[in-house]
Amino acid sequence: MAEIRIAVIGVGNCASALIQGIHYYRRYTPDDAVGLMHYRLGGYAPEDIHVTAAFDIDARKVGRDVAEAIFAPPNCTRRFCPAVPETGVAVSMGAILDGVSPHLADYPAHQRFEPAANPEPGRDEVVRILKETKTDIMVNYLPVGSGKATQFYADCALEAGCGFANCIPVFIASDPEWAARFSERNLPIVGDDIKSQLGATITHRQLADLFRKRGVKLERTYQLNTGGNTDFLNMLNRERLASKKTSKTEAVQSVLDERLPDDNIHVGPSDYVPWQKDNKVAFIRMEGRLFGDVPMNLELRLSVEDSPNSAGVAIDAIRCAKLALMHGEGGVLEAPSAWFCKHPPRQFSDDEAWRRLEVFIRDRTAI
Question: H-type helices in 57-199, by residue range?
């Protein structure tokens, strides 16, 4: 089968984990591989994904081979693949727009980006690169709050004829106008905001669903997250955090029979702890009433390496988008978006989203 050619937008921790994973699983057979939801998806193994273009704005990454750039500061995720071979693809200068929060200038360089002096590319230049590299899918890993920058790259994908995997909480797939544009161009999009493999959101949803199924009245809940990567540093700007809070909150509210009042639910990143690096710690509390109106509460602490947790899902989202391209399907991929993302256009229970995803894959897999 043909390879899957991807362009990575933002060569940060999530991109590092994804690219490491592509090479890491080369050494394993399907029976030995741990940590994948699907070793082969639609006939594609992780090693069939190839980076053909990459964009960033950090001087420590622009111009370097992708295999080097994924380990350049301020990236701090775990290095779990001992050797990532050179790709032959140099990181291109990207469009800045709103991709950088002004408050990052207050932090030391090792904790933030160093702006590259290269001129920013226009839309035509990005489209040219995508076409010349025959890119299939653009993978958006820009910082939270990069609304204008995400729209810029989504527009480039439409012009270049690429699918789009929107891994961040800027609403493209769940925006009717953008969804319509991808449908009109017959190009697939998966989004919005990747749901980690076993992260705070999927865990919180499962617990909320358990309360509902077991007849426990959920009255109040919170989810507090801390981390030390650039994403958490970026989200100290509360204005950039708005879409992230919406995405995570709606992911939990959507599995409840009755929405909780805004004052009784709080879901979102809480603080930046530098020494945690790419480790994310989530604290979940749920308060409710059991049989006889007897009160109960549940508290959970979850600690995960944030970026590999995301990459374990993105690798499947990319392959689903490629399957849609092969079968001439455009617009929002409903089942993959519901299973892989926090803020899809249409929410399903996790059981139903998983079932629909498996049907999606089966129906598009060559026998």
Answer: 66-69, 123-132, 147-160, 176-184
- Is residue 304 within 8 A of residue 284, CB to CB? The reply is no
Termini Cα distance of the chain: 13
Using alpha carbons only, give the angle 343, 347, 353 rounded to the nearest 5 degrees.
110
Q: Could you tell me the CA-to-CA distances from 29 to 11, 40, 47, 100 in Å, in that order?
A: 28, 10, 12, 41
Mention every residue, 6+ apart, whose C-beta is less than 8 A from residue 133: 5, 7, 52, 53, 89
With a CB cutoff of 8 Å and minimum separation 6, the contacts of 82 are none
Q: Give mean pLDDT in consecutive 10-residue pieces for the chain, a chain of 367 residues.
A: 93 98 93 94 96 97 98 96 95 95 87 89 97 98 96 98 98 98 98 96 96 97 96 90 92 95 92 96 98 98 97 97 97 98 96 97 82
SS3 218: strand
> Quick check: 285 and 222 in contact, CB under 8 A?
yes
For residue range 77-128, what is the model confidence (pLDDT) as tens digits?
999 998 999 999 999 999 999 999 989 888 888 888 888 999 999 999 999 9
Tokens of 127: 């489209």
**Cα–Cα dist 191/164, whole Å:** 8
Beta-bridged to residue 279, according to DSSP, are 305
Q: Are 191 and 230 in contact (CB under 8 A)?
A: no
DSSP string computed for 325-367: HHTT--EE-HHHHHHHBSS-SS---HHHHHHHHHHHHHHTS--
pLDDT of residue 112: 83
Q: How many CB atoms lie within 10 A of CB 168?
A: 27
Q: How far apart are CA 197 and CA 190, in angstroms?
A: 16
Scanning the chain, the segments in alpha helix (DSSP H) are 13-24, 66-69, 123-132, 147-160, 176-184, 200-213, 230-234, 238-253, 306-326, 334-340, 350-363
